[in-house]
Amino acid sequence: MILTSPSISRLNGIQKVVEEIFVNSDCFLFIDDVIAENPFSYVSTVYERMNFCPEYIIGIGGGSVIDLAKAISVSSTIEELQEIFYHSKTLKKYSNVIAIPTTFGTGAETSYGAILYDDEKKIKNGLRGVEVQPNLVYLDFDLYNSASKRIKALAGFDCMTHCVETYVSLKSNDLIRYQAVKSLDTVFCNLEKAVEGDINAVKKMAIGSMMMGFNLAFSSTCMPHRLQYVIGPLTNTSHSEGLAALYKGWIQFISKNKTGPFSDLAKDLRMSTSELKNKIERLKKNLGIDYSLTDFGLNTNDIENILQKVSGNLSADPYYKDMDSVNEFIKLSL
Q1: Average pLDDT over all residues of the chain
Q2: Strand, coil or helix: what is 76?
Q3: Which CATH number fits domain 2-138: 3.90.550.10, 3.40.50.10330, 3.40.109.10, 3.40.50.1970?
Q4: What pTM was estimated for this model as a whole?
Q5: Distance (Å, rounded) from C-alpha 228 to C-alpha 244?
């Protein structure tokens, strides 16, 4: 089974390639209408179209496409997927996954998670486990470069958030921190050039994003990702847009501490805490994604509703003390 999105298929002629390879064959299924965020209402239609259990699932696209391939590889029906989604059951690997990423941001090609969205209950969460990780990854740098400047900017910022959060996480270790520093330096040096189509910069961003997928597998994200899972459905914004808005407050919130993991990250980059904060804020502005939560229609009246919907494990976040700290973080992001 091959999964991709309408835009990727159209830009790169994937359907033509697939038809040439599998001419006169009935042993494959080509689905090129994958939509962002993987809502259950859409995922259920994919299962209805499957008349066999695929030996291989090839996901060609961004995080949503690859996450769908990963999710289907460990669940044979929509009911089984929902059971895993809500109850974290032991995973069984039904299919091998080949990931061919087209954006340098999510790290989905190497991570242990597959993010999905229950659009009836308005809950965003994921399937997690070593079984979810793809079996094989191919990097095609021309595919990355076929994306629009805006998509490349947002995806690259997502990669940056993985660098920061997997480094500061309490689940981090020396190897994860080393990889986070190298990848963050890659983002600062190459993202803006990659957005403009510099193929060498694109290559470096692609490898940095893939390395952050490994970091996500062994470390964790922090408060911004927990909050994005709430504000995305509330505001109908993408994962990367939500993170860009939340980092307005997150960077202010964590840089107030002159010691701690964010300060250590700055030192590893040979910067002061304020210099690193300013570097991230300047990157947002240069990329044209200097959002705040207010830009997405949220205000102080929405904070209580957001707080009630926050889920997932916050204990790995060194800056989380209680819900008052989340409250402060949200206010700074408005």
Answers
A1: 94
A2: coil
A3: 3.40.50.1970
A4: 0.93
A5: 10
